[in-house]
Amino acid sequence: MLAQVQVADAGLPLPNAAATGDELFRLGLLYSTGQGGAPLDYVSAHMLFNLAAMRGSTEAKVYRKELSEEMASAEVAEAQRQAREWLAHG
Questions:
Q1: CB-side exposure of 40: number of CA atoms within 13 Å?
Q2: 3 state SS for 33-90
Q3: What angle do CA 79, 67, 86 make, to 5 degrees?
Q4: Quick one: CA torsion of 27, 29, 7, 75, rounded to 10 degrees?
Q5: DSSP structure class, residue 19
Q6: pLDDT for 17-45, tens place per residue?
Q7: Is 47 exposed, middle or buried (0-12, 13-18, 19+ CB in 10 A)?
Q8: 3-class DSSP state of 1
Q9: Alpha-carbon distance 63 to 12, whole Å?
Q10: Which of 49, 50, 74, 85 fits a 20 to 30 Å CA distance from 66?
């Protein structure tokens, strides 16, 4: 299992509430690959792909599904919780 780092603690800023699906998708890619200064963090990547999918990114839906197959159910649940929290505070 991968070490998990919350998006807010990773050194990259949380996306703001006005972020587009494409912007959220691109940030999710960084976390899913560990590139661009982001740690490799599947929970944060799934959260971002989930938010991007909600904002219309069809690519994010595909990546979210593929990523969830590599994650434990508890990790997926945590990613979903973080997405709900972001939506509530965004």
A1: 7
A2: HCCCCCCCCHHHHHHHHHHHHHCCCHHHHHHHHHHHCCCCHHHHHHHHHHHHHHHHHC
A3: 25
A4: 140
A5: -
A6: 889 999 999 999 999 999 988 899 999 99
A7: buried
A8: coil
A9: 21
A10: 85
Q: CB atoms < 10 A from the CB of 8, how many?
A: 12
Q: How many CB atoms lie within 10 A of CB 16?
A: 8
Burial of 48 per CB tally in 10 Å (0-12, 13-18, 19+)? buried
What is this structure's pTM? Answer: 0.84
* Contact yes or no for 4/76 (Cβ under 8 A): no
Rounded Cα gap, residues 86 and 80, in angstroms: 10
